[in-house]
Hints:
By secondary structure, the protein is of the alpha+beta class. The longest helix is centred in the first third of the chain and has 22 residues, at about 160-180.
Amino acid sequence: MKRKLFLLLIPLLAVLGCQRDSLTGDAGNTDVNARFVFNVSTASTATKQGSTSTQTGENFRGISDAMLMTYKLDSDGSILSADATADRVYNLSSLISTANTRRVLEMSLPLNTNTMLLYGRAPEPETANYGEYGHLDNFSITNLAGSTNIQLGRRLSDADYTEFQNLEKLMAGMFTLIMNTTLKGETHHSDISADETPDNGSNKYKYSFSGNSTTYNATDANPGYPNIRWSDYNNSDGKSPLSGQNLYPLEEQLKALYVEMTTIRSDKGELRAGSGEASKRIIADLWSVINAIRCADPLCPEEAIAKYFAQQVHVRLSAIFNATVPEAGGTVTVTSVKTSATAATTLNGDLAVSWPTEDGNATYKPGDVTSDQLGKLNDFPFNFHIPRGASYVAFDNTTKCFYYPQAFNTSAVGGTPSEGGAYNATSYYYPSELLYFGNSPLRVSNKEHSVSDYSLTTISDWYKDENWSAGTTADPDWSKNAHVLSSTRSVALQYEVNYGVAMLETKVAYAGANQVLEDNRNAVVKMSDTNSNEPNNKIVVDGNSFKLTGIIIGGQYRNVGWDYLPCVAPGENKKVTGFIYDNAIPEEASAIPVSGTSGSTYTLVFDNFAGTLGTDGIWTPSATGQETVYVALEFQNNSGRDFYGNCNLIRKEGYFYLIGALTAPKKTSGTYDKDVIWPADGKAVIPPYTLAGKSQEIPRVFIQDYKTTATFKLGQYSLQYAYLTVPDLRATSMTLGLSVDIQWSDGLLYNDVILGGNTQVE
């Protein structure tokens, strides 16, 4: 997202005056009619950074959905330290417009009010989109304790997820059909042209090649050859399924292709990309080998049958996919899923059979395939506004079927989360919207003040007592830590109003100048051939080698409560976590220069304080410390060449993911190894709170009203840790590919966080 917060923000003034004489001394009336004035400082460009989505310079976006709550606490000068039902709630609607930072409202406040809460959010511009300005599914504030519901927006609704799953089933069914091709030409298999069909009467196969007509008698190889399926070439004894002899070259190619397509080394951490884009690349590679086999000159009956088998696969591929297929056996290119009614009709017939689900205990049918569905496969799942690597495919060796795991923690790098259950595609969220939060005692004055009396427009001036001391000793203008009396004419929030959200500023760089990156060819090739000792590829990078296309932030709690800390949503029984996906990358941030860092991407996130909320409404910090946040950066490979990542080949122009860890400060000997500059006394109080109404001042990766800056660096061996899919960002066993340089504004800085680590894969 093209955005950034200024750190300690928006001094907010609540002025109440113009008491009516008729109320003076009226013991039966508990309200004071007053003038309510907000003054919002837009500060200066020196104290704020970022783009229009988070307010730069005089670009104030305004406040909408503003809610003001009043409380009568036991002592003046206190903040609300635990959730409580408010005495009064005021729905101020669109409180402050972008045209004027001040607005006067006639209001009535309860007597003895001494603390106020204020909530709000920046309005969405008319031209806004969810990616640029964030999105919440809920922003519900009422006066009842426990009713606040502030919730990140899911990128996939329940209806979207149903369609998403149907497309996964369709894609899995298509791959299953292709890899279960047989020579029998039976039901659920596309017919081939008559002149290339075996003559079942004579059990012979006629094939012409090299200008000469040669007739092979299939019984010379194996009389049961029409029943052969692709998996038969990958039998346990490594022999030809026709003659029982050692595999001939064309048979070897069929076997190798089958093994490569159906072997997913989950024990090594491999995740097979299941996106439409990745699938089209896989199909192009598969089809290129098939095309070479079908155009080869067979030298024996076994090879003639292998050639015929390749023709069967080619016919099936041609029914489903568009491609440029050289008739001489060259490389297949420009692959895409067909979107014609004919292709849909073909698949409806072929997919009439039921395929086992991933647990093997049930079956599903993809349903009626439509040309619209086929069209959506080409950009799946990015057309659902989630990462390209959010969907991955697996293969069941028992049922010989492909399937898409629905829970991310089934992967080799996964694990069951302590809260929130298993992740799936609905666990991707939009970044947060820009939110506001004020929790403050009051200053009161018996003098009537108009809007023009308030010239406090900078953050640093607002909380200083000397700026509120006009008047005489006998008749002071403002009283600090006070409550509303019947004589009160003006009231101001004593503390500043803060942002209720945190922000991650992301930068990317290479770990050194003239960087040469080393891929993982040696280790990946050894997975298939233990005797191989191929050297790793060396990639000399330039300013266009890799493009940043997305940022995925793990461990994000979907709901925050009245104090903008993670909570259980109303009606739920556990906290839910997921991933924020930000793909609104500014152009200046997408390119990684050879030296120096990229431009910044700014992502609004929720505070990720980890602790237990007690029955007294107070947080107890987690005994294991604050959580490490894993961040996946999505890159496009524009280096002009393929390279080997963690377990897979990353194709040129393809997408891959590198992981970096943002580690929370550790407490040793009573102090933190990294600390935050907390607000000065009287300036603001950052949750979580003590019972005494003080901040517990516990550093964590994301703190509301703070900006965390992380510089991720690609080191010499980072590409060896590249994933084709988004791994489970909760897992402690994942391989890290990025170093991280991190800081908070007036707080922490994470420097030199190497993506994937600094060591070579062994």
